[in-house]
Amino acid sequence: MAELTNDFFGTGFFDWQRSGPDHLRRLYERTGYNEAEYWGAFSTEPVDEATYELPEWAIGPFGKYPGNPVFGPAEKGWDRGRFGGGVHNGAIVRKDGLFYYVYRGEEPLPEGFWGQGEQQSIEFGEIDYICDIGVATSHDGVTFTRLEGHNPLFRHGEDARYSFEDVCVVEHDGRYYLYCNRWDWKDAENPAINGVYIAVSDNLVDWQKIGLAFPEADEIHRNACVLQNPENQAVRVDGRFVMYLNNGLIAYSEDLLHWESTKVDELWPGGEGCFALTDYSQSDPDRIVLFTGGHHTGHFYAAGEVLLSKSDPARAVDWLPRPVLVAEERYPWENCRDAEEPERLVSCFRDTIFFTGMTRHEGTWWLYYGGSEVYTCLAQADADTD
């Protein structure tokens, strides 16, 4: 693979793909993004990998599966991918001896989507894709088969106008609850139609649509992380289920369907939550670990960990000073290159891994992550924490 140069603005975008630093400044202002607020507590100084040890509460270290990637875009169809997006940002659940991967699949916007004379972009970037949710299964966790007779799940009839993205799935009393982001690109700033969307299933295959989790919210709620145990079962804290969201929001529910949100008092570093885990430690069942993603210690996207507690799920106790999982130059699929033809660009997201989902199986953590927003990859760690 040819050597890559970091000729973009420290964000992962090449200079020919965006309108430059002014565009990013407008993006930050438009979305309320604040580099110092979200990531300022992380040191930008390199960590001595030879001497660094994870604290007792942390999960890891992780080793990457040598056969990565384990799942990629289809040759054709709704999840064939496009430049900059493929199959990723899903949830992994074990059921009846199988790994179920409920994933986000991307394709280019259909011709004529915008209509003649309609606005073809929103203010925080060009929109050239649309997503739906699919299901794939695996006996071994590395070889996945799409359930073609059921996929895609949601973009049918009147719902074809929406993009469904970024999945969280939990189980409770034999029923599965799916949370994803729903977007209407033609009205993408309207919280009445955009945000966390709920569906339920008894078998992880046939899903009943419920609707928005926060239909009366004043701001868009997105990227739901429902607190769960290592077997992906939803966990109550003081009688209520807990959901972490972006933009400093946390929500509570008694039934996993009706949610009420509030702002946390203090943001923690790595404010973009990806996965919330508890009941993994026998010695300290109070622990909650929130896996995060973002510009972690200089990486465009890497996975971090924040420690919280059941005694106060909205307050950070500690966080890792460095990522627990980062992209590596030797892996082309983590650096915007095709997995089989490394000389070919398939994405604009270099130095990018994004936490996708995790489960515990046979004493091992199976952590799935997205490579350059195109592929799904696997990393593993010892799950015997006590």
TrEMBL record:
The protein depicted here goes by the name: Glycosylase
Q: Which organism is it from?
A: Micromonospora sicca
Membrane spanning stretches = none
What the record says about family reads: Belongs to the glycosyl hydrolase 130 family.
Q: Which InterPro entries match?
A: Glyco_hydro_beta-prop_sf (IPR023296), Mannoside_phosphorylase (IPR007184)
Listed A to Z, the keywords are: Glycosyltransferase, Transferase
- Source taxon at top rank: Bacteria
An example Gene Ontology molecular-function term: glycosyltransferase activity
